[in-house]
Prior knowledge:
By secondary structure, the chain is of the alpha/beta class.
Amino acid sequence: MHTSLARRALSALMLLGAAAGLPDMARAQVRTADPAVRGLPLSAFPRLVKLTKHVYGYEEIRQPGFTTVSLIVIGKDGVLIADGQGSSAATQTMLDRIKRITPLPVKWYVVGSDHGDHTAGNNVLPTGLTWVVHPTSLAQLKRDSAAATASRPVIVPPMAMTGNVQTIDVGTTEVVVRFVGRAHTGGDLMVHLPREQILFMSEAYLNRVFPAMRSAYPSEWVRTIDAALAIDRVKRYIPGHGFIETGKRSREELVTFRDAITGVIAEATRLKTLGISADEAVKRADWGPVGTWFLAEQQAPIAIRRVWAEIDGQLRP
């Protein structure tokens, strides 16, 4: 089923629910990354999602119409941000929204993902930040900076973290930055707030978005999600794309995403055993329900080639 057909079908289901007099909460439980199907106009974004007294998620729309998510933690004397947005304007808008909820300056910044849709606006961040970035992501940002233009600079943090865990006491809570394995990139970082039992997973978790694998480590990605699910004192899992869910549902959706990656690997592996070309494999692929998720048409061919590269031992060790 094409993505557009899936959206129309889901929209029809929501209209039927409304006609049947179902409560708003029941109609809102359509599991999708599509704002329209979820019943949200694009004018509702960007938006701050309050998670606790001092912690917010920030959802902004990116092309072709789903969210990029940042995490905001308000400390005693400053603010911590995990992941920015995909342009200077979008990141500046986020900074302006933060000023509406606190006068405190941004002091800490965590690079959860080194991809441009999370870092391309970092040039508008204030100076003097304490950066937290994985060595692999720092190396990638250096390469991206060398290839960047003056009009679109890539900001390179001064240094990388030296271990797999870095703890920051922001005054109101403890922030634990964790590297638990390669996933969407080689340096994915997660932000754990033990007291609040929140885990921001950046692009290691794409809620109802087709597993994007251009720089991924497919089999390791599955193991990384399992490691995240095993972290103590977590009840709410926050994605890097897709909607922020409530506690129980956030875990269910994370498991669904892990299973989607497993399914994509299995289907790409099946296609490889047929001895056909990658182009032919794209035509023959059967992704099941995951084929209706955001980015499926764009990312499915990339996933096939990436899984095949992993099978052939061609990914960077």
